[in-house]
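Table 4 source record.
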Amino acid sequence: MKSTHLRKRIVAALLAVVLAVSLAAPSLAIEETGVSKSGSNGLTWEEIDSSSVQVESPIQANTSVVEKTVEHEDTDMVRVSIILKDASTLEKGFTSDEIAAADRSAMQYRRKLEKQQDSMAAAISKQALNGATLDVVWNMTLAANIISANVQYGQIEKIKEVAGVQEVILENRYEPCVVKQEETADPNMATSDKMIGSSAAWAAGYTGAGSRIAIIDTGADVDHPSLDPDALKYALQGSNATIMTEADLTDEVLNQLNAYTRKAGLTAADFYVNEKIPFGFNYVDADTDITHDNDTQGDHGSHVTGIAAGNRFVKDEAGNYVAALDSVMTQGVAPDAQILTMKVFGKRGGAYDSDYMVAIEDAMVLGADAANLSLGGSFPGYSEYTEEKYRHILDEIVGSGMVVTISAGNSGSWFDQTAFGLPYAGSVNWATNGSPGSYVNSLCVASVDNAGVTDNYLKVKGHNMTYTEKSYQNKPIYTIGGSHEYIYLDKIGTAEEFAAVKDVLAGKIAICNRGDTSFYEKAEAAVANGAIATIIVNNQPGSNYMDLTDYKKTEPCVSISQTDGAFLRKNSTKVTSQDGSVLYYSGEMFVSSERESWDLGEDYYTMSSFSSWGIPGALTMKPEITAPGGRIYSLKDGGEYQNMSGTSMASPQVAGMAALVAEYIKQNGLAEKTGLAVRTLAQSLLMSTAQPIVEKQGVDEQGKTLEGYYSVLQQGAGLANIGAAVNSGSYLMMDQDATDSYADGKIKAELGDDPQRTGEYSFGFTLYNLENTDSTFTLSADFFTQAALQGELNNGNGQVMNFSDKKTAALAADVVWDVDGKTLKPEMPAELDGCDFDGSGKVTADDGQALLDYVTGVRTEISSKSCADLDKDGDIDTYDAYLFFSRLSSAAVTVPANGKIHVTIRAKVLGLDSYDEKNGGAGAYVEGYVFANEVSSKEGVEGTSHSIPVLGYYGNWTDASMFDVGSFIQYHYGMETRPPYMLAAIQQAAQLQSLTIKYKGVDDSYSLGGNLYVDDGFYDADRYSINPDTAKISDIYFCLIRNAANGRITVTGEDGTVYLNKETQAPIIGAYYFSNQKTWMQVQSGLSVDCAPDAAEGEKLTVKLTMAPEYYVDYSGSTLSTDWDALGEGASQTYTMFVDKTAPTLTDITLSEDLINDGRVMTVTASDNRYVAAAVLYDYSTGKILARTGGSPKGASRGEAVTMSLDANGTANAAHLLLQVYDYANNCSTYKINLNKSELNDPVEVSLNRSTLKLFKGGTATLEAEVTPFGIHPDTVTWTSDNTNVATVDEDGTVTGIGDGTATITATSVKDPTKSAACTVTVEVLKVTLTGALMDGSSTSQFYTWDMENDTTWTPGAVMEVDGITSTAYDTDRNNVIVVDGNERKLHQVDMESGKVLADYDAVAGGNFNVPLFDLEYSELFTKGDIPACYSIYNFMLNKPAELGSIRTDGFMLYIDFLFYGNGADKFTAMTSLGKTKLDLDQDGTAETDAEVLLLLDNRGNVWTFQIYDGIDYSNTTGKYEIAKSNLTSAFKMYFMGDKNGTPLCSMVPTTVNGQLALYLSYFTGKANELYRLTYDSAKNFWTGEKLASFGENVYPATILKIDNHEANQTELEQIVSNLPLGSHTVQSQDLTDMLNSAAVEEAAASYGALNTATERKASAKPAADIASEQPASSEIITSEDQNTVTLKLVSGGMAPTTNGLMSVSYDAAGWELKNVIGSTQYFSYKAEAGKVTIGYVSVDSMPAGEQVAELTFTKTNAGKDADPRFTVQKTERNEQRIDEVEHLTASSNRDDPCPSKEFRDLSTTAWYHESVDYVLSKGIMQGYGDGTFRPDETATRAQVVTLLYRIAGEPAVDDSKALPFTDVNLESWYGSALRWAYQNGITTGVSADTFAPDDCVTREQMVSFLARYAKVTGAYEKVSEDLSSFSDRDRVSSYAVESMQWAVANGFILGISSFLVIGGYLVLKGNGLSFAFAVSGCLGAAMILAMLISSLSGTVIPIFFQKIGVDPAVASGPLITTVNDLVAVITYYGLAWVILINLLHLA
């Protein structure tokens, strides 16, 4: 009874799994049937040529390589820069000052270049464009000699070949972001003058007067009050400043401007706007409209302009000038500067590289002091390569006076949108900042959130708090302005929590925390309990943008920051319960009703979360400086003001500062004094006086705020401060060893990498004193790196991963300063006077060590003990030692008046090896700031503070991987378990990286790394092979996570032979998240290897892909030079394989019969020089696979023979078989097996696969001959033709049509020449001439004719003046052609004779987008005037006829028709007209309605016949249609240009053939257009297609306009049309233009890069797992294998960085002996005593929380056999705190581990399943996988289920002699015995007579059947007759499973579901609209699914409940589960359906 009871428990448990498994496994009902019986036969076998057989391919795809996407089609129009070889004006040696002064020689040289460019354009037109005019946009001659032009992508290579062209590069394109309207409701922040010190600069008299700032953006509102020219003049009254006037735009100046040459005829008056804007030009639209009035680019440019230079005075209502900061609460950083408005976004869209670069050139000519570009590319930019000539333009500006500020971008860090939001340890690519900000000589600007506020506010105890608020139903909170009491719950704000304080909440403001429940639920709960408003405290840093869509109340609801929430808790009255627990906090709050301005202070300085991180691949510092960009209040068009956020807002602040610094430099003659250019000195002052921003990193356990620098990768030099810059009496210049930008005034140290891991870094700089008195500076340095995290993933498997953190961790360093060549000895600070603790007579670091030794007890006394208590707390401790060392660490230097000193810093940075280890040996960033702080004067005047940001890398820069984690091989075999980064982008991310092999005769390529025929289930690199004679290494696919500047693929032999070594010589962009489109891009790259190495048999080949970032690439030569040897391991991916040219050899075949079990087994013995992969058995007559089996088992040796068993039950009715034996290189041996020996004596016979054959002239077909009897040799034939004028035949049986007539093709047996077979071939000559349009292989658009009767190919016609074509239509009335171009998708009327364009039209009217019309057809019926009318198709739309220019997506939407009648089709691909006809619509016998007949082809080969006629009016067109299938339905694979959503490029025209309707179809194959003829059989309503010819490789598209049938009678076609019956289906037109237009506009707006205006950031949509909460690190104990040695790794503990500490270790002195102590900190001391070690440590620069302090090693004493394994660590000091923390560490005793789950790396010992898994593992029921994984989340397969049941049954003995009927199983595998047992006991009978499908997911009914049958075997089964009628899918239950399902239902385990399509379809048929019908059915389906899940949960909870109370759930819970499941399902289903349909969607 006990065992029966146990079995019942197990069965009940497995039954409970059924529902869960069914949710993951496919619900396919496959019936298990019995096995057919068969008799025995004899056996013969002979080897044949493998290439002579055609059989089903045995290759099973082992990966789905993500389809490669083509960035540009050849016909795409792109903007390129054609770089010419002659030097530009600046390159020629002319200076910017000479150009600005209109130097005559410089002007003459520019004019010379312009003439040369005109000549070059003509040469390009002639030599590369077939005479078409080059569409020149810009002629650039100043800093670069470039022609910017629009060309077809396919023409680029030809242009490169033109003499005089140096290079042709694609230009980047940028688009402005649309400003989110809700931004205006965010906290409105005034220009952040206090943060950047602009008030101090203004007070010093620097306002930008006389300066010019170029704003290269979307334009400006020239009439805005803050740009009023009169206000500027008012501000400049009494000033000596000289401003730019119209008179300054002389002819000499104009002639130098790109704008002037772009638009002929403009004058100075046209460019001059007013005194505030003395120059304005629209560089995109080539006009002077610089406003936003006539385009849709938004008012971004106005906002940016106001930030940089908005006026400091505006007029009030009385017309008086008032201060702008007081009146409108904003003014520019340089308010008196003039603006050069350079509009690069306009009606024609966004800016290309050339657009903004010519604007920069013009800004330089116009003498701008600063130029601002608030734009950036969508992908992380390069610094040294991409757009090299444009970077050169910035290079040439280095020596000028103009600072170019460029925003960093708004993409956050690279990892923000990955699964965890952080990088795995060892990944270093944080970079998202795009070009041009990434270029070396731009000044790249990051963003910090604004801490200056202009807004309404909440005030508590004098503290102002901002809030975020969005308007839904709720009123603004300022509507309740005044003082109010509040109740702060400090909880998440559930209805129950608010109800508990209802009595005190009424009439007050409710405050609660964010979390768990939705925002609107919190607010409604608060209001329901009497609150007048709700405030929600954010639970994380940053702003909280609440979605209150479902909030139905009007009471205000706002959100405040986490920091302000903490302030409220601290400053409110605490109300507690009797037991002392906090009930709530209360207080009084003032709500403002008016805006005010205030500053939050430095504590609120927070780097903007959207601000893009660096660094580029050159290991250079980007971004370089930071300014406020989060929530900036500035100009809005129409004279208003608004908030915007983004680095777009930060960059113009620095541009304004640059103008002020330029003013400061010029007024004080500093350029002359220093000899530096204004730009150089300005950048030095701005960067060196920037303030590094410190991050608040939380609080420690004592409540102390933790701080650390924001990463240099994020903030660069820090927050710019113009006040400090213009008041600085000193400046810095870097040495060349510090940065390549040293000469440009960039203050930064870019130290490169440290491959030797020395940790030693040095660089130099010079400190200049501009004052007339000496100045003293203290020198100091702080170093840090990215902190490390260790997190457990909350995915249930206990997997622990290491990550790098965004936060930084401090590093200690030993720093030496060399000043003017002499090492500087730190001066003793006054506070250490007398601290001579070692009695040496002087104060040095030795005294600090003496103090630390005193604390630990090493010293019993010290000198000057009275001075030792440095913190005056009464104790001498390690904190006093820390204070001593920290005060001693700085050095002081004096710089003489107007003099300089040179400083070299040499730093040994400590602790880097620890982070290197945490990063898996991939190295670590070295970051820091070096400070030179001027000592305050005697009067207390604060001096200048300079800082230098430091960036380096510890280790090799490419030790960190260039690639995403894991390859296909690693994931396939479980060697990598971390989710790939790109899982956030694509579900197949684990398959993105692989090497593919292409086999001859096989269409697809296959990934290296597995068995092509049978999945081995294990990894063995020794098996993977290639035969270079029959295969090649095809492609390598990879996912870059860092940009590469160059790539290389090598194929080498083991002896060093190089078979391939090729470089890309071009950059490859890594994967990146395109924030505008909210999608990942470039997730996979692919390179062609295309190598079949001529290597010897057995040679090991290594394929290596290496990607080099810019750091390793030299660009100085004509080609890229890369230091490949310097690259680290992370730069490469490596694959290995062996050369195997030898096919396996078959040594024996036997066929055995199992008479007892009616089974048949074929045993095959084979060997290979390496390994046998598989044996495959075929039915010769069908070529179908009968059975397959794997080859060499795991652990087999090379060359070892293997015996394989094939299930031969499928051969019962097949005497003729083929056997193929494969190795891993796809080498194959093929054998004929004749089971009928006597048949070989039969006479020879020959047969052909067809007796008749029809060909067209020039067409080919291959005949196949068979010689019998099967197995004779030779079995070959010879081929002959009796009429070679009609058809010829080659030796392979390929027949070619030559001319009209018939011929006989004969195949004669070689073995018996008297035997032959013949085929009669009929050849037809097509007597038609086609006329159409095409694009040839060189992408030339032209007309053609093709006389198919006399010519074998087409004849070119006139070349069209159209760039590309996608579809055409022939205007029969005007004899011209309507063309849809391949660029802008516009419509053009083109003359057929000349190719000239007669007229242009928008493709689709009513919007600023162009739908890609798939095909057009001229309408004779609906053309009413001079403009032709056309039908058009697009996806499932047939658009009604409309005149060109008026076409809309307005017509027949046939989506539902496709669903019902389309046979799987979903879009139309081509159309044609049969002409006009008349219809008898009223069925009165008279056809009186004019109509037109159309034929449409869809993408499944169906032909739709439409009859279109006028309805009541022209706008209500109606149609009738029929649909006919064709033989093309399965043959066609429709291709689309670009991707599946592209244009199909098909075309067709009608004709007749022998009195039947026919179509000539041009069909796009993906590489060319092919020609078909379709003939209609009206009796069968069927079209038969025949392939005629091809237009040729790479000729596409090819459209057909008309057909000249040499013999046809036109009246035949008209008669056919007139006799067509009226269509039975009616369809009404619908207008979808507005819907499609809005979608397309949204898509277009996010198509390229962006102006860097931030949008609201959202979390990753699909996180793979969460990182568990961070815990304090613990010390670690490691026991040696012999248990005689123990190592203790002691950590500081706590959550905060540590500077000092004291701890002790106690141990069993009798059993253990202390052998070694190693300190890991900067200063260290320990004292060892018997049984105790005391340790003290100091780290001046602090060390991260949990960092290792010391390592102690103990060994057992001789008496230590039974030594106490316990060690106690007592921590008593940390930082300034006294603590009492104890850790107990125990050495391992090597006892048996009772937890088998620990053996599996993907199992968690804390997961809910832990005990259950331990049970099945300990009992042997489950054993996991061989790779160390258990895979708890995988769905069960059929093989796994029978194996589990077998083990539960106790693994009873099975009869191995009995054969099984299944041909798809390997009985030698892990499930073999289980399957035998299950089959022999009737538990399974297979899914068919000969298949078991072991790897298929088990279905619900299969699982139930297995369990029911097992229950029968164990005696636990009771037959029932449960009614299944209540289940809608009961008819789908297979007959074999009905009884089992009844048994299961009776036990409450199955719940049926309703059909989504049935309900939706029914509602449509009842007349409801499509969206309504399927919305309802979808809601019902969703409700049903939710109901199932909830009821399933109840069924799970009930057994748990019984188990808890001690009742066996298997016995007690069955009936209750059934009852409760039914009740819960019904209630939840109807309840949820009601909620979703009525309450949410309001469909009732």
